[in-house]
Amino acid sequence: MKNIDPQLLELIERYVADELSEAERMVFENQLEQDPEIGEALDFFMAFEAEKEDFGRILMKEELRKIDAAMEQKAKPAALSIIAEEVLQKIADLTHKTIEEVSRLFQPIPEYHVLQLATDRSDTVKVKTPPIGEDYTNGTLIFELEQPGNYVIIVENNRRAIVFQKRLQKNERMTQIEVSGYPMGVYYWKLTELSKDWMQVGHFFVTLVE
Length: 210
What we know:
Elements: H1 6-16, H2 22-34, H3 36-50, H4 57-81, H5 85-95, H6 99-105, H7 110-120, E1 127-129, E2 134-135, E3 140-145, E4 151-157, E5 162-167, E6 174-178, E7 185-193, E8 199-206
Parallel strand pairs: 2-8
Antiparallel strand pairs: 1-3, 3-6, 4-5, 4-7, 7-8
Helix pairs in contact: 1-3, 2-3, 4-7, 5-6
């Protein structure tokens, strides 16, 4: 989309951060309903915020320093251990694909696993469920949060393409995502709290193996 007007961008930032007065919020939401371009600008801003690559600079830099040596050892076997070889072979047999073709579908994104480990070792974990690394073939991801906030949930495949995105309501502490129909592969969910330099990451599988 075209560049967002700086004044509109500032207004959107304040809206997302809950910094507008009640009157300002009502005016903005009325404009939001009337003007599709403002809705597009808000969607763009939310997606941009959710995809920020700093992942919490202060926390993550400290945590990554602590685990850098350990992850250097684990980075290479991650591609092999992210899913069991016997499961890959079973999928290949069922789908009439080569083991190499199937393996590419489950190729991990190493930095996401580094971020996931760093967050798990910190005290900022805010997601009680879903569990990490589960097979959700024809299943449902149920997100249960420790406390309400301005959250956005994004699901990506291992090519970093967004396949799902949702902004939670201000007081919403539980939501679910239907995984039924997802192509097989490894997926990553990201939970971002808007206006805060924080993100939590997890992963799950769709194997099509019942």
